Amino acid sequence: MALLNTPMPYPGEIWAVVRFLASQSGPVASETLRAFLEPHNRDEKKTTTVHYALTTLRSLGLAEESGEGEDWMLAGALADLRSDDYAAFQRALRAAVLGLQGHQPAETADDLRRALVWSLSRDPFSESFSWALVDSRHQRDAPDGDLVFVNPTRWPPFVAWAGTLGLGASAPHIAQRYVPDCTCAVRQVLEEHLPAGTPTDALEVLRLLREHLPVLPGGIISESSGYGLPDDRTVGTALSFALMRGEHEKWLVMSSDSDAKQPIKLQDPERLSMRLCSSITRQEATNV
User: Fold this and answer.
1) What is the DSSP letter of 201?
2) What is the DSSP string of 15-32?
């Protein structure tokens, strides 16, 4: 069942199940999970949110059944999760959805990946979305008529999933609007793979981000979905926004050398032409 279809649980509900499993020393009976997380639901024949959360985790390779299928435990990238490590949960969920770490992308996340690709092709500098705006713009912009949001049912779960994966956020300036702000995911990838205090070639950083966030413009999932860029040095608007936000928040330093041979080209609405950047330095985090 696709992640954006009902009655699939929202990622916040999945996190509640994951935290409970992570706090236990071994497999947990599904009845125990239901008793603690859904004590109001006493109908044993009714399919519960806990059941859907476990099924989703299993489809993503993040949980597995033991014994005769009555006991559950975390698996894959969540196997050693601490119950308070939400960032690790985000990274594991994102890797499973995007098919990273040598795994094939989960079929249940096909619709979510297509929606993320479309979203990250948009301009967070100037655009924020409600369902009404998505309904009109998505119909016009999706390549080959490959529509994801054919009705409003999928929009709320998409907003929730994108936020949890660090690839979208609520608009800070307009209520009930969504912005394709991927800053959280970008920062997590750079903190994990880029040494602090060392200038790194900007094109190398760009390739790193596209490898770990392949739904970004220029990434393999985005390109296979029909969204292209003029060349590999052009940075999509959503990623440009995230990198410049990192610079504004002082956890990134972006520099441009006049003699650089392969600078990347950032979209900057305050400039008449693209902004060139030849090296990127991650600063040691002062807050998390």
Assistant:
1) E
2) HHHHHHHHTSSS-EEHHH
